[in-house]
Specification:
The structure holds two protein chains of two kinds. Chain A is mostly beta strands. Helix content of chain B is 0%, strand content 48%. Chain B is built from no helices and eleven strands. In chain B, the strands form two sheets. In chain B, strands 2, 4, 5, 6, 9, 10 and 11 form a seven-stranded mixed beta sheet that branches. In chain B, strand 7 and strand 8 form a beta hairpin. In chain B, 36% of the residues are buried. The chains are: A mainly beta, B mainly beta. Chains A and B meet through strand 5, strand 9 and strand 10 of A and strand 9 and strand 10 of B.
């Protein structure tokens, strides 16, 4: 089946630091999304980015579909950025569904 | 615009009891998903609806789980009887269509079976 690999699995940073999270895909990229799951469990949409680059405040994302990867950049980290970051892409595994990475757990220390 | 609404937020029940979760998707979204998420893992699809039709329920444990979306809008997921291993977060999501655009998630229902 289709594989989605996220790296790093864990990341601990001081407030104010920058970080790059990566998502690799074993097959073509279709409907890639990045989510932030906050400590209360809510999955928050960050980007819908099947290709190209998007920016939203301190966050930006780039997807290089031809090379089957996506990057999420977080600049000037704040403690509220803590949580788990997931990437997911739509693919046919029998039926169409979102295939999820295992997530990157980010802890921002004050 | 209202997001995906789920209720209840939390539920604690004894094993062998029934439980139901409710989801109201974003207005106009034809596709509705129910996911299960265990601690430290990504969400796992239970069932996907296109309007009122369940088009993918291959991962739904049908001996105890059931779902419905009678009018193609809100949906209910039921477990009867609940087992200890069903403790998890149950997430509902919706999108315009399965292959079109973003999926948006509700806040989830955290189920604890004791």
């Amino acid at each position: 089946g289709i594989q989605v690999e996220q790296s790093p699995p864990d990341l601990i940073l001081q407030e104010g630091a920058n970080s790059t999270l990566r998502c690799n895909f074993s097959d073509s990229v279709n409907n890639l999304q990045w989510f932030h799951q906050n400590p209360w469990g809510q999955l928050i949409n960050l980007f819908y980015i099947p290709s190209g680059t998007k920016q939203n405040g301190r966050l930006s994302a780039t997807t290089v579909a031809t090379e089957r990867y996506s990057l999420l950049y977080i600049s000037s980290s704040q403690t509220t950025d803590s949580g788990v970051y997931f990437c997911a892409d739509g693919a046919y595994e029998g039926n169409y569904q979102l295939i999820w990475g295992a997530g990157t757990k980010l802890i921002i220390k004050p | 615009e209202a997001g995906v609404v789920q209720s209840p937020r939390y539920k604690i029940i004894e094993k062998k009891q029934p439980v139901a979760f409710w989801c109201n998707p974003i207005s106009g979204h034809n596709t509705l998903y129910w996911y299960l998420q265990n601690l430290g893992q990504g969400p796992e699809l239970l069932i996907r609806y296109e309007n009122e039709e369940a088009v993918d329920d291959s991962q739904l444990p049908k001996d105890r789980f059931s779902a419905e979306r009678l009018k193609g809008v809100d949906s209910t997921l039921k477990i009867q009887p609940a087992e200890l291993g069903d403790s998890a977060v149950y997430l509902c999501a919706s999108s315009l269509g399965a292959e079109r655009g973003e999926a948006f998630f509700g806040q989830g229902t955290r189920l604890t079976v004791v």
